[in-house]
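Reopening this one. Same input as before:
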Amino acid sequence: MSRPAEVKAAARTILKVMPRVMRTIGSAHQWSGLAASPVHFRLLGILAHHPCNLSELAVQQAVSLPTMSNSISVLVERGWVNRVPSQDDRRQVLLELTPDGRAMLSKMKSEAEARIVELLDDLSPKDLKDLSAGLAILERALAAHAGPGGHGQDKARCK
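Same output, byte for byte:
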């Protein structure tokens, strides 16, 4: 197989696996009664690093402003996110994680990790080592194209 074909095959595999990973994370949250979706998980993860405004989140997640507004409204209603006026520009409202939001994010991470551990537990030591090596390579490749600081979307540059 030529290099372009190998790269394309790897890309197809990633695109095939990612929805399965997200469904696995989503099902872990449903099983545990967290009433949270993968979207909530991702937004809480972003806001754990720094506050963002609604427009920045919508652009970063490639969704419309009304879609992002609906998602954030759910997080605000649950007490996981606060809307606060920006110190720099009073016309701006920043979204920040609350202590309850941080606790929920931690719980969601633990639940997702436990579910993935359960699924990976049957792998042979060699397969687990190969998987870890492959994921490290993927992480480096994505970080190399993530912009200043090498951070991916979860550490987007919000104000």
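So the earlier flakiness isn't reproducible anymore. For the record, The chain has one domain: 3-155.
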